[in-house]
Amino acid sequence: MKHRLSDYELDVATGQLVWNRHKDQMRDAPNKATLPLIWAEAILPDGSFRFQALRGNHKPYLELKARQQHLVTNCECLLLQRTTAKEQHRRLICGVLPRGFIVRNGGGVIIENHLNIIRPKKGAVDPPPLRAMSALLNSEIVDQLFRCISGSVAVSAYELSALPLPDPEHLKALDKLLRYCDIIK
Fold first, then answer.
1. Burial letters for 141-158: b for 16+ Cβ neighbours within 10 Å, e otherwise?
2. For the chain, what is the mean pLDDT?
3. What are the CA-CA distances from residue 74 to residues 29, 46, 67, 81, 85 (Å)?
4. What is the number of domains present in the chain?
5. What confidence tens digit (pLDDT) does each residue in 109-135 have?
6. Residue partners of 122: CB distance under 8 A and separation at least 6
7. pLDDT of residue 166
8. Which domain holds residue 36?
9. Pairwise CA distance, residues 100 & 103, whole Å
10. Tell me, what CATH number does 65's domain have?
């Protein structure tokens, strides 16, 4: 498999927020200046997204200050947990951050740095369907490939960029299969 995420017209970056540098901006409830704060726990082992802040030091909202727009993500994207143990069933735990969630919450979210963000490149002509891409990254075979290139607990953007993947044309068949499964449910 000679293809990489860049062949799918996707970029990888680490979540922008280092939470312990912004403790004074974290909030329990939304207000006009807050946006949802997305923690790694929002991506469940089954690949689904659930907005939540369960740990004691986690808060669900961040109040933005002037000149902090660089922290905002305003497009549908994939979120992939950055820290997983070798003993876990899967090292790659990925889910889609839905566009509807972003729209319902002021047009943007803040993503904490224990998540990798995988999104279409600027100017991408034919980016892949994100749900199908998430299914591919959550698959056992891609997990095994990742384990071959990484022995660390960290899932870095660099390693994800280097991960061998099948031809992007094959993703169209996976997307079609996922849509068919939706119909027969």
1. ebbebbeeebeeeebebe
2. 93
3. 20, 24, 16, 19, 30
4. 1
5. 999 999 999 999 999 988 999 999 999
6. none
7. 93
8. 5-184
9. 5
10. 3.90.220.10
